[in-house]
Structures are given as C-alpha cells and as structure tokens.
Specification:
A hairpin with an 8-residue loop joins strand 2 (about 15-25) and strand 3 (about 35). The chain has helices at about 65-75, 95-100, 105-115, 115-120, 155-165; strands at about 5-10, 15-25, 35, 55-60, 85-95, 130-135, 145-150, 175-185. The longest helix is centred in the C-terminal third of the chain and has 12 residues, at about 155-165. The protein has an eight-stranded antiparallel sheet with strand order 4-1-3-2-8-5-7-6. The protein is α+β, with helices and mostly antiparallel strands and about 180 residues long. The chain contains five helices and eight strands. The structure holds protoporphyrin IX containing FE. Protoporphyrin IX containing FE (HEM) binds next to strand 5, helix 4, strand 6, strand 7 and helix 5.
C-alpha cells in the first residue's frame, strides 16, 4: 500500500485555517492551523491527541479515468507546491451506501456521462492543482480526501467549478462533505 498521508488540525502547521464549512452532514471541529504530510515517507507531524483532528488517506490507482482523459489531464495539470499557490482547500467527502452498491460501470456512467466531472475540472486547469486520496479502505470517517492549491486570483474560478460539481448527479450520492479553507502560513 502507498504511504499514508495525513492532515492534522491543531495549534501549528504550514497552513492557516480560514474557515471550516459543513457542506453536507457533520462538519469538523474548529482549529487554527493544519499540518500535512505528503505520505512520501515523511514523519507524521503533531502526535496523536495533540491536534484537534487528524484525517488520513492514501494515493491510489485511478478508477474512472480513460486513456484519452489521462493524457489531456497530464498535459494540462500542474503540481502541488507552486510558490504562487498560497490558497488551499481540503475537502473530505463520503459517498452513500447507494453509491457503493453500484457496479463499476454504473459509477463511471454517473461520474462521466451524467456529471462530466473531468470536463468541469479541466476548465480550471492549470490554475488549480489537485490531489486525490482514498480513505474508505482505511476505516476513516471519509471515503476521500481531496486537496486543491491555487493562487488567490483563481479563487473565483475554483468556487465556480465547485458549484458546478455540486450541482451534478454524482453529488446526489455525497452524504458528508466538509470544506476546509486554508492560506499558506
Ligand atoms: C481541479 C479540478 C478537478 C479535476 C481536474 C478533477 C479530476 C478528477 C479525476 C480525473 C478523477 C477520477 C480519478 C479516478 O479515475 O479514479 C476525480 C475523482 C474525484 N474527484 Fe475530482 N477533479 C477536480 C475537482 C474536484 C473537486 C473540487 C472535488 C471535491 C469537491 C473533487 C472530488 C473528487 C472525488 C471525491 C473523486 C473520487 C470519486 C470516486 O472515486 O468516487 N474533484 N477527479
């Protein structure tokens, strides 16, 4: 299994928490800072119990991306850690039992044909850099941890993209979603 990446909220961290918004279901407790570990061998910061909360996930293989989409994404997306990208958003999400009861092809149809998730996302590339972590198989409270970085001037485009995604059929299966808005400390 890939190394476990973690996000710990507490009194220290490289990101200042500006807001925590409960979008669907239960939110997360307030905290001042967020520290992250890349999950690439780095030691976990902030020991257990120190942070207000810790969420964990692993980078995994893709499920729904077809070759042509992967090629387009690869040609347009930027990596994390760009100096100008001083804004970040952590969005942990859990999908419903109804979603997980579907077959793979049914989920792909909802994700792609019915919701155009990748098409909507592509509109904000390369301004927004992203990372998708899977947490469901770790027994975590969320199925996914999604992470986005962008420069302040891309905030409007990011918010518009988020609103479009939340209006899709795919999002009718989202039963818990929290938005953690961050600024590089
Ligand atoms: C920067 C724009 C975005 C792009 C380019 C993008 C692209 C993608 C791609 C290619 C996948 C499929 C991965 C796979 O094949 O398994 C994916 C999955 C996912 N994305 Fe996005 N996305 C974007 C924005 C977002 C946002 C804003 C959210 C959350 C609010 C989000 C949440 C997710 C989740 C939870 C999955 C996993 C879905 C599942 O496996 O059921 N994405 N995204």
């Amino acid at each position: 299994m890939a190394p476990v990446a973690s996000f710990t909220a507490g009194d220290t961290g490289e990101w200042r928490i500006e807001a925590i918004n409960a979008v669907a279901g239960e939110g997360l407790p307030p905290a001042a800072f967020l520290s992250t570990t890349a999950g690439e061998g780095g030691a976990e910061q902030g020991g257990a119990g120190l942070g207000a909360w810790t969420l964990r996930g692993v980078a995994s293989n893709t499920r729904y991306t077809e070759r042509a989409e992967a090629t387009t994404l690869g040609s347009r997306q930027e990596g994390l850690g760009r100096p100008a990208a001083s804004r970040a958003v952590l969005i942990p999400m859990r999908k419903s039992d109804a979603w997980w009861a579907l077959a793979q092809d049914e989920r792909r149809a909802i994700f792609a044909a019915q919701s155009d998730h990748i098409g909507i996302g592509l509109d904000v590339l390369p301004a927004v850099a992203r990372r998708l972590l899977h947490a469901r198989d770790l027994g975590e409270p969320f199925d996914f941890l999604t992470w986005f970085e962008f420069a302040p001037e891309a905030t409007g485009a990011f918010d518009a993209m988020l609103a479009r995604l939340r209006a899709t059929v795919e999002w009718t299966f989202v039963e818990r979603e929290v938005e953690v808005r961050l600024t590089r400390a």
